[in-house]
Amino acid sequence: MGSPQRPPLAHVFRGTFVHSSASAPMEILHGHLLGVDDGGTIVFLEKTDHQEQLAKKWGFKTSDIRELSNHEFFMPGMVDTHIHAPQYSFTGTRVDLPLLQWLTTYTFPTEAKYKDSDFAEEVYTRVVRRTLKNGTTTACYFATIYTDTSLLLAEIIDKFGQRAFVGKVCMDMNDSVPQYKEITADSVQETERFVKELLERKYPRVQPVITPRFGPSCTEDLLSALGDLAQARDLHVQSHISENEEEVKLVENMFPAYQNYTELYDKNKLLTSK
């Protein structure tokens, strides 16, 4: 029997590669060859001394190699662990207020616009394209309370090939902007639908993440239900905690049965290894 056929190479690069490993915080590899197959997997990273052997093994010619210039190098894609996709529409502006007032004045009214799928598609496309352009190949996104446009964000991310966790935001308390909140049962039900539909799409690089916005926007019932869902489906969790003193005091007043903000998440099964 012959040896199994290797997948064809899509790219071969020669130049400098920078990465980190368990033994070296930063390793600079000059004069190396990197091969990528049709599936986007790196199949080799070797010194150029091995070019002849690699060419025979993988079936590429010298003319197939893309040579990096002296001022170019490859590095692993960056990971952004916290992006509010809907806030991209006013990025770099509206920074004149403390957190809670900023949410009420700018953020919640803006996020309420994302019920409109056309508006959401335009902004979400821009934020995904921009993060990729800046070298962010993996991201954790907060969307909004709207399930359908949160699924749209996941679809856009998949289309552009970014790796991501996407969360439908959950919030059943918002007296300051009452049109932008959910009924507790609806929030849970819609989160279950979001998770189910996103997993059924089987995107190779996009996964759901349970996303209570933060303590002040969630009742204890909602936090508990989300914790149960995260545990039942073995899902990741993202939120916010202790971003300023006013927020911490608010949580202390809202949830006096808990010793601190951290315990609020912990006792409701939201502070996990994921």
UniProtKB/TrEMBL annotation:
Pfam families from the UniProt entry: Amidohydro_1
Taxonomy, top ranks, is: Eukaryota, Metazoa, Chordata, Craniata, Vertebrata
Q: What Gene Ontology terms for biological process does this UniProt record contain?
A: guanine catabolic process
- Spell out the SUPFAM superfamilies in the cross-references: Composite domain of metallo-dependent hydrolases, Metallo-dependent hydrolases
Q: Which InterPro entries match?
A: Amidohydro-rel, Metal-dep_hydrolase_composite, Metal_Hydrolase, Metallo-dep_hydrolases
Where does the source fall among the domains of life? Answer: Eukaryota
Q: GO molecular function of the protein, one example? A: zinc ion binding
- This one is known as GUAD deaminase
Query: Cellular component GO terms, alphabetically?
Result: cytosol
Alphabetized, the UniProt keywords read: Hydrolase, Metal-binding, Zinc
Which residue intervals define the domain Amidohydrolase-related in the entry?
Answer: 74-269
Required cofactor names: Zn(2+)
| UniProt source species | Smutsornis africanus (Double-banded courser)
